[in-house]
Amino acid sequence: MVLMPVIEDTILIAAPAGSLFALSQDYALRTAWDPFVREMRFLDGAGKAGKGVRVSVRAWTGLTMEVEFVSFLPPRSVAMKMQRGPWFFRQFAGAWLFSDHAAGARVTFRYSFTTRWPRLRPFLDPIIAAMFRRDIRARLRGLKHGAERARLLERTPNAAVSLQT
Fold first, then answer.
1. Strand-pair partners of 113
2. From CA 2, how far away is CA 85, in angstroms rounded?
3. Taking burial as the number of CB atoms within 10 A of a residue's CB, which of 2, 54, 75, 83 is the most buried?
4. Angle 90-7-22 (CA atoms, 0-180°, nearest 5)?
5. The whole model's pTM is what?
6. Which are the contacts of 143, defined by CB distance < 8 A and separation ≥ 6?
7. Average pLDDT, whole number, for the chain?
8. CA–CA separation, 13 vs 141, rounded Å?
9. What class does CATH assign to 6-164?
């Protein structure tokens, strides 16, 4: 059994967890706050995120990946798994976790991956992990900025409902 490296980080954001979940899954606004994503499009005729839905993602690096939502539990978590992607990954997965906190919401973002070449993993995995750590931090800071300063929650229909409750 291969242990997948797991890279994660957490941030506190001054907004309700449900509102942040809605913003994170509002793909019309995704590029307004997420520095990682350049393009996201639903596949197979889907129009919104949900368990079993597939999405094509193009990152700022130009790399593309097709992922499937393996878990979609509003307003607490969403997880996806690579179906097709960069040749150097054997497996790849990501998850967003949201929980209410006294100061707003605690948001955790996590990646896990397995590279293709077992003998190269001791050298390659730390480099990939460092890049992912940087991307995760940037994505969390982007969500925080989008929610707290750019007022994107006001433009997210489901988040506006969460803000009123």
1. 92
2. 19
3. 75
4. 100
5. 0.90
6. 11, 13, 20, 23, 24, 33, 34, 107
7. 92
8. 9
9. alpha beta
- Any residues with CB less than 8 A from the CB of 23 and at least 6 apart, and which? 29, 33, 143, 146, 147, 152, 153, 156, 159
Phi, psi at 90, each rounded to 5°:
-85, -40
Q: Are 91 and 4 in contact (CB under 8 A)?
A: yes
Predicted pLDDT of residue 4: 82
Q: How far is residue 145's CA from residue 134's CA, in Å, rounded to a whole number?
A: 16
Residue count of the chain, please give it: 165
